[in-house]
Write a structure and sequence with these properties.
9 strands; disordered N terminus; about 150 residues; alpha+beta
Amino acid sequence: MRQGASLQGGVMTLNLIKMAVGVSDMAELKKLQKQRRKERGRACFYTRNTPKRAEELLDGGSIYWVIRRQVMARQRLKRIGHAIGKDGRRYCAIDYEMKLIPVMPRPYRAFQGWRYLTPANAPPDRPKGVDSGEKLPPKLARELRELGLL
C-alpha cells in the first residue's frame, strides 16, 4: 500500500500539499524549519483556513512541500489546532514531524495556500541511493525528470 493510503475505521488517509515559498532546495527548507521551530517552540506552519478533513489528515497523512515548482519532500502531520497571531487574528496551526522525507520529484504548478493531496496523486518516497538531481542545475534536472531519466 502506498504511503498514506491506509483505511482505518472507515477514514481514508489524506495529505496536504503546500508551496515552500522563497525556498530554493531541501537544505534551505530544513534550515528554515529549524529556525522557525526554535522561534515558535514547535514544528508547525500557520494558515488562515482550517482543513475541514482534519481526521483524514491526522490518520497518517503528510504535508508535501513544493520547492521551485517540484514536489520534493514530505513530513508526517501530527496535530491541527489554533493559534492567535501578534495581530490578534486567529490562525490554524498545523504541526508536523521534523523528519524531512525526500520524495521522487514531480512537477507541480504554483498555487496559494495549501491543497488536499490524495494518496493516489502523491509522489512515492525516494528510495535510498536514488539521486533526485538536487546537485544539478535546476533546469537540467527538470528536463531529465521530464524525460524520465532522473
